[in-house]
Design goal:
This protein is of the alpha+beta class. Helices cover 41% and strands 15% of the residues.
Length: 299
């Protein structure tokens, strides 16, 4: 009883039966400030999609050594160039860090059902057919890989074009917020990741990586059986993003570009971006300390 009297906080429950979150007074104050200036990510001018699903990673995801081997087996320079364009670098969830990524030197063969694989890419065709009849790409040795339906991830043309655009990428399962900016375009995120394209990406990148969003997501997101957070699309898009001016957005963009060009350190980026966000939400010093103590700063 004494504990309840010391720690109890008033709570208003919705009368319409909708969901609610029980928060301490300081958490409730922070939430209200976020709600006062923010709108859900799904209402921003962005599109979120899954990474690619190959149907057989063993066949379609290859090492740099295997890529070089396939290119060396091409019978002409024209085939080699076509084949090189078909093999793209791939990012997995484990490769993605906060604000950056460590590419593991892996590639994905971006063969599409609509392409004439046997005629234009005989070396690729031979490689893929080596997996047929092994319980991987087909059930019998006469099945042709390019006749199989494992290319469904290529069916949406506009979705495919997103891979070539600047994008935010992140893994589905992580203990911390780890969103990276793939600003050049060209990397292909794989099935355990998501990608976001659209407007204001540097600003959104800073917000998504901020302790404030990490705390807020812990209140609305889902976890695995061992407590690791699942950064799924349907919960990510419910995050409230503060609406700020174009001038303020430009400050975040400058910070991100300076970090990419190695003009500021990772710690400088975090410190300055987080403070700009705290200012936008108008948090007090006590509220800032609470948010920053929510997790250890170690990544």
């Amino acid at each position: 009883r004494d504990f309840v009297q010391q720690h109890a906080a008033p709570m208003t429950f919705p009368k319409d039966g909708s969901s609610y979150i029980i928060l301490s007074p300081i958490e409730l104050s922070i939430r209200r400030k976020i709600e006062a200036v923010g709108k859900p990510l799904k209402e921003w001018d962005v599109q979120i999609n899954y990474g690619i699903k190959t149907g057989c990673n063993e066949a379609f995801i290859i090492t740099t050594e295997k890529r070089n081997e396939l290119l060396s087996q091409c019978q002409s320079e024209e085939e080699r160039q076509r084949t090189a364009e078909l093999i793209r670098p791939i990012l997995r969830g484990r490769d993605i860090k906060r604000y950056s990524y460590d590419w593991a030197g892996l590639w994905v063969i971006c063969a599409r059902l609509c392409e004439d694989i046997p005629t234009n890419y005989p070396t690729i065709c031979h490689h893929l057919e080596s997996f047929v009849g092994k319980g991987k790409l087909g059930d019998n040795s006469t099945t042709k890989v390019f006749e199989r339906p494992w290319w469904s991830w290529m069916q949406e043309p506009s979705y495919w074009k997103d891979f070539d655009r600047p994008k935010i990428v992140w893994g589905e399962i992580s203990d911390r917020s780890k969103f990276a900016y793939e600003h050049k375009g060209g990397f292909i995120p794989e099935a355990t990741t998501f990608l976001m394209v659209g407007c204001d990406l540097p600003y959104l990148l800073c917000v998504l990586n901020a302790p404030l969003s990490e705390w807020f997501f812990s209140k609305i997101g889902t976890t695995t059986g061992v407590g690791t957070i699942r950064w799924k699309k349907y919960t990510i898009q419910e995050l409230l993003i503060p609406c700020i001016s174009d001038t303020q957005k430009a400050q975040f963009t400058t910070l991100v570009h300076c970090f990419i060009r190695h003009k500021i350190s990772f710690d400088q980026l975090l410190r300055q971006a987080n403070q700009l966000l705290y200012d936008a939400v108008d948090l007090t010093a006590d509220e800032i300390r609470y948010i920053e103590s929510f997790y250890s700063p170690a990544l």
